[in-house]
Sequence to fold (198 residues):
Amino acid sequence: MIFKFVKKSETDLFVLLHGTGGDETSLIDLGRLLHPDASLLGVRGNVNENGMNRFFKRLRPGVFDLDSLVKETNNLKFFLDDFLKEHHFKYANTVVIGYSNGANIIGSVIFHYGGLFKGVALLHPMVPIQNFDVKNQDSQNIFITASKSDPIVQASESSTLAEMLKTADAKVRLNWYSYGHNISEEELTDLSDWLSTI
Ligand code: MLT
Fold:
């Protein structure tokens, strides 16, 4: 996968996954702001939709191509396995921050692979796969942001996702905002606060 790696800490790694139309650089400044000393790994989604990078194909807005989603879920997991090994990082010290489409792919990774990370921040995610038997999360820390006025994600879907992860033994914090599908200042303050607790 195409990525941008900013090496700092030998132990603390932030993995940053962009939304539709972003790239490996999109969330680097956000990562730096949240943890100036962490090493940062921005990853670019493998799929190109009319010139926009995505982490998996969709049939239409909000309707995912499940074959592509599963294939790219495994690709991302194997890429992270190799990257962490090569650079001597541990999953237990790795935090992932995914926005929108990036949140959906990492949501699928944890649905399939369970508790791996120190923490996972899902900013405006959807349920990646409905009626999925979510792998045990082993108390994995998960921060979810949602908005009742999000034109892309229904409020009920945010609540369902939080419940599915809680039922699978994740420690979930679900926070609501009023800025649609955008990342707000308030949300970043809460994300920073959540990071200080994990
Ligand atoms: C997706 O396709 O992953 C979601 O609809 C979010 C987005 O628009 O990227």
Helices lie at 28-34, 66-86, 101-113, 155-167, 185-195.
